[in-house]
Amino acid sequence: MIYRETGQFKTSYATDxxxxxxxxxxxxxxxxxxxxxxxxxxxxGSYWFNAILIPFLIFALAAxxxxxxxxxxxxxxxxxxxxMAVGAYAAYNFQVRVEGIPVLVSFVLxxxxxxxxxxxxxxxxxxxxxxxLAVATLAAQFFIVWCLTKFPYLSNNSSSGVISVxxxxxxxxxxxxxxxxxxxxxxxxxxxxxxAKNMARSTTGRAWMAVRDxxxxxxxxxIPLMRTKLLAFAVSSFYCxxxxxxxxxxxxxxxxxxxxxxxxxxxxxxxxxVGGVGSxxxxxxxxxxxxxxxxFLDVTMPWLAExxxxxxxxxxxxxxxxxxxxxxxMFFLVVEPHxxxxxxxxxxxxxxxxPFPH
Amino acid sequence: xxxxxxxxxxxxxxxxxxxxxxxxxxxxxxxxxxxxxxQGAMVYFAAxxxxxxxxxxxxxxxxFILALVVMTLLGIATERFLLRKLVNQTPISLFMAxxxxxxxxxxxxxxLWGNQVRSLDIGLVDEPIAWILDQYNIVVSxxxxxxxxxxxxxxxxxxxxxxxxxxxxxLRAVADDHQAALSIGIPLQHxxxxxxxxxxxxxLVAGMLWGSRNGVQFALTFTALKALPVLILGGFTSVPGAIxxxxxxxxxxxxxxxxxxxxxxxxxxxxxxxIENWFPYVLALLFLLVRPEGLFGERHxxxx
Lengths: 358, 304
Known about the structure:
The complex is a heterodimer. Chain A is an all-alpha fold.
């Protein structure tokens, strides 16, 4: 009853093809945005901004980038953290080396730089696929991090490649409070998420999905494979690059190349598996889940330990964290391969029929 | 030239060690089409089990058997609780499941056996062989030769096993086509449990050798990252490919580590060590651009 679209007639192609065709969805998204932009800044404290909300949004953006490549275009990548690193270092270099460049311009340029690198490492995808490609993207992961550590020019001659970024300034306003940084990140992330949602239903998105489902068949019906695959790499790396720039500028303030490790790439991959492969909403749900899980375990483990009278040291806690992570990944792949996003879809289905069972 | 050969031989011998790990990957991929990312974690788990049993007072041979039992149990559990539920899923989701498995095993192993770094003594000395040192002035240790011999033995044994035994034939049939194999009465689940057991055995041998050389520690899991470029170079489905790939990767990476940084240093200044971390990947990547199925991999034909 709540989610029924009866009576919502589409009288033009424009209304039929809009991003959110159902009125309830439009209202829901609007409410969500209002809550995120207005309510959250009023109620949340600075711990929430710094430790949870800002990293959540940034990782959701990175997961969105990987989801475009893996979920929509079907090219598995294990190097997303490296593309984030490219974005972070490119933004830093533009800020340092170009006098008076606006922050947003440097972010866009950083995204484009990451996209360029993404295309470079996407080139093998034209010849190889599947596992061979997944392993090949590891080359990007190791090579890029090595480059950033070893070439002093890229980190403006700082030792071991650590960069410290200044506060963001825009039109005379300095984003120095957690609140303002949160709003800055939120604006960028919501715009890019909307763009991704839009892309998924466009010609490009449909071409990606055709390539994902079977690339030979896609080529036969006239989809240019090279352009489609490379575009997926470029767009995905752009998203990851912007996420990386935000990671450096709005979250940590100072980053080193080794921070963008293989573990981080895996974490982003887990986000899209848990959240839902090939779903914009899933990237957000997955990011929230993977980021909150360690915090949740940190809080509950000592409590559980007390309950069963077992001394848990920090090493054991980290081992249990690894096990829970691994077990969850396997659990999701076995039980719900489409992730949390699918659960939401099932929920919508139920809401549509409620209070009747069928 | 002397130095060049020394580096080359050192590289070839360490390449054999990579091959040992790569073999485990190839076995499972051949039989079930799963790229088992958890092989590195299995090497760690196997080595830890071996050391753990020895610390409890078991002699090496008994510890080896006990560790083998543990690895077989792990293999059977993997088949029972993970692979069986994922039948008919895409290869990529199976791959991601093994990434999950590797995290799980990496957490489980130190929970069971403790996480401190331990040495493993298998009665081999890591010293240069005197007469080779005297004659040719090149350092080759007994340990390396033993590892090389072990790898060759394993490869020979596995090749014979795959080619001439009943079970080996069944394994190849399963690798070709699950459904066809099932329809002519090959028990798929037994075969998979067996393959994971054999892969556990290979992991145990690799873990024993790596562990006695570098100590039994978490870093053993990174052997998987060394084995992956070996795999794509040699082809995922080829046992000889794993050996040849390992030799190529091992030797070129050591040579690159010695000879490339000075060149870069002349051009850019600064320190350019650590090339061996990415060099194998880039080499394998460039190679794939020329020959997408690897050295000995099967060329596949796409049908719509």
